Amino acid sequence: MSHQYEGPRRSFAVPSQLSPAIPFIHRLASSGAFKDLFREGMTLVEEAAAYLDGPGRAESSALPRPTALAYSTESMRLTTRLMQVASWLLLQRAVNEGELTSSEAQAERVRVKLSREEYGYRPEIFEQLPPTLRSLSQRSMRIQERVMHLDQSLVVAHSRLPIKAQSEVASQVERLRAAFSP
To answer: Which homologous superfamily is 25-180 in?
Structure first.
């Protein structure tokens, strides 16, 4: 039985019975391990930018047409992937530094589209790409996997937190609905 991962479910509904488990993910997300992940992610963003603007540009111009097209596609995918990872990392760092609450970050995270992706072409074409681009792509996919795992864990932990009524009016409307619903 094959299961295709479709990214984290971003529903923040409160389960009917809260789990007595203590979510340690919040501690992990603000630990030294997160700082290392942040540093690694931002270093990879800088490395990719330097490569694509410098040596990568020269390497791509020397490629045969089909491989050059694959290079363009992969460089765009790499850039998009790294920008999404960087956005997520910056959001989490803002939470860790007290600039955002966890709830505010959850609301902002819906704009960050973390999704698993495969290569957009056959493996033999990927192997024809310059080694540096291949390495950057593979490393970016690994760091994206780590970020997605952390994001999924935070979403699950956040969904277990009790949610307060948004306002007094909202709670009154809910009470009226409950009183008059069949």
So the answer is: Protein of unknown function DUF1465 (1.10.8.930)
